[in-house]
Amino acid sequence: MRTRFIIYFCFCSIAFFAQYNSEFLNFEKTGRSISINGEYELGSNGIYNSLLNKFIYGGYINKKIKDASNDHIKNLNVMGANINYDMSVFFGRNSKYSYLIGIKDQIIFNSSFTKDFYQLMFYGNKPYLNETKNLAGSSINSLRFQELKLGFIWHKIDTTAKVGVSVSILKGQQLFYIKAKEGSSLYTNSDGTELVFNSDFDMALSDTNNRKNPFAYTGIGASADIFFETPYKSKIGKGSVLTVNANNIGFLHWFDNSVQYNSDSTFRFDGYKVDNLLDLKDTTLAAINRDSIIKNTTNARKESFNVNIPTNLLIINKIRFTNKFVLGTGFRYLFNSNFKPYFFADAEYQLTSKITGVLHVAYGGYSKLNVGLAFSYNSPAWFFKIGSNSLQGYISPSNTYGQGAFISIAKKFKR
Question: Are 99 and 159 in contact (CB under 8 A)?
Answer without folding.
Answer: no
